[in-house]
Amino acid sequence: MPNIRITDIVESLIIAFLVYEIMAWARNTRLMSLLKGIIVIVVFIMLAAVFNMTTILWIVSHILSIAVIAVVVVLQPELRKALEELGRRRTLMKILPFDSVREEGRISDKTIKEITRACLEMARARTGALIVMERDHPLDEFERTGIEVDGIVTSQLLINIFEHNTPLHDGAVIVNGDRVTSATCYLPLSENMELSKDLGTRHRAGVGVSEVTDSMTIIVSEETGKISVAQGGELERNVESDRLEERLRDFQEKPEDESVRRLGRTSLTRKGLSWKNSV
């Protein structure tokens, strides 16, 4: 029997975890297609070695280092995204002293109600809206593309910003904590080909910013009056009022009394039902 040490077991678990994480990450990137191509090439090289094709083996041995560099260049956007996601992992942020979780950026219960009320009103009036909720990852680069607001989040402020023919209605609003920091901000569009073709630029921008940051984006469709929520590159469509508040509560990460939660959700459900009947 081989002499198995505790460190060998830990090492095997670490390698298995890394392989799983890499495969899970590669599933939604161009790396998966590249891996399939690499498997085909490896099989071809193995056949060349079996049949002693010396010329092919000589070529492979001389271009291997160049091929590695080419793969890094081709996958540069995916590798950068993976490293950014690793740096945003909350477990690492708690262990490493490089950055601290910005607890002051958490939204209050009042802000949750104001955002929910504003989204319902804009959905009823079919006013398009794009609201980005900042979390731990700073959104300064997107805030600089817009106009500074620095106002307390209220439903009236959000509705006025996205009202048609107003100077600030075009683009996204960024919310940090209980304040609207900027409006008319430009966001990166998602390149996810699996998104529905009937989604417009507003939805693709909402998904796009959620892919590169840990933010949550609320989208109100101008065409359908439906509310959607994008987070972590995933889009949840046709969100009702109680579900919207639930997503905001989860984003807030603040424990609340269950009776208060039940009461608030019951009230918002009634408002959502009245809204659906009016639509």
Task: Give a quick precis of the structure.
The protein has 279 residues and is of the alpha+beta class. It has helices spanning 6-26, 30-50, 54-74, 76-88, 90-95, 109-124, 140-143, 155-162, 201-212, 241-252, 258-278, and strands at residues 129-133, 147-152, 172-176, 179-185, 216-220, 227-231, 234-236. The chain contains eleven helices and seven strands.
Tally of strands:
7
Coarse shape: elongated
Q: Residue share in helices?
A: 55-70%
Please name the fourth-level CATH homologous superfamily of the largest domain. DNA integrity scanning protein, DisA, N-terminal domain
Top-tier CATH class of the largest domain: Alpha Beta
Overall radius of gyration? 24 Å
The largest sheet, given as strand count, sense and whether it forms a barrel, is: 7 strands, mixed
- Structural class given helices, strands, pairing? alpha+beta
Instruction: Report the order of strands and helices.
Output: HHHHHHEHEHEEHEEEHH
Q: Strand order of the main beta sheet, please?
A: 2-4-3-1-5-6-7
Overall structural domain count: 2
CATH architecture of the largest domain: 3-Layer(aba) Sandwich
Structure description:
Helix 6 (109-124) runs parallel beside helix 8, helix 6 (109-124) packs antiparallel against helix 10 and helix 10 runs antiparallel to helix 11. Strands 2-4-3-1-5-6-7 form a seven-stranded mixed beta sheet, with helices on both faces. Strand 5 (216-220) and strand 6 form a beta hairpin. The chain has two domains: 6-88, no CATH class; 106-278, 3-Layer(aba) Sandwich (YojJ-like (1), CATH 3.40.1700. By secondary structure, it is of the alpha+beta class. The protein is built from eleven helices and seven strands. 25% of the residues are buried. It is elongated and about 75 Å long. It starts with 5 loop residues before the first helix and ends with a helix.
